[in-house]
Amino acid sequence: MKVSLVGERVILVPYMKDHVPKYHAWMQDPGILQATASEPLTLDQEYEMQLSWTQDTSKHTFIVLDKDLMVGDFIHGQPYTQVLFSAMVGDVNIFMNDLDDSHIAEIEIMIAESKSRCKGLAKESVLLMMASAVKIFGILIFRAKIGESNDASLNLFQKLEFKKTSYSEIFKEVTLELQITESKRRELLQLIGNATVTHS
Hints:
By secondary structure, this protein is α+β, with helices and mostly antiparallel strands. It is 36% helix and 28% strand. The protein has seven helices and nine strands. A nine-stranded mixed sheet has the order 7-8-6-5-4-3-2-1-9. α1 packs across α3 and α5 (121-137) crosses α7. 30% of the residues are buried.
């Protein structure tokens, strides 16, 4: 998915090497680590992780840019500038790691910058990501695994019509799913049709 997706409030760009230092800084925050069920990595390990994600066709990670924080026009593939750095506020991922069904994808969203929360960016990012995954990969079921204490993410996915399917006592984690019906598919494809998609 070497594309950028331009919505009303966000721009999703592929996760690149230049993004790693700021991403790494986010992942030093204990609250973010807990919310994302992540372990802290060194900067070198973060660079290695970014490279491995780039090479893994089952993982697709995009950086969320807050359009309100951008100055000037966005050009896909443009050099990583301070303008883009200041607009970088989170990431959204899909993982197609179900060995039994290639039409299932796990989805995650993180808005790391507090100034960009509660603005609808997470919702639009998830919808754009799902729309592109439906269009490009034919995904039929989306899953979200969320820590039971992460009320913001639980509320977001429930508003997006995800339904709780299981709970892990060990990980204190809720799994929610969204089945892509034909009407939902048309709705998502219309969304991606209205977004600007630029290719590398």
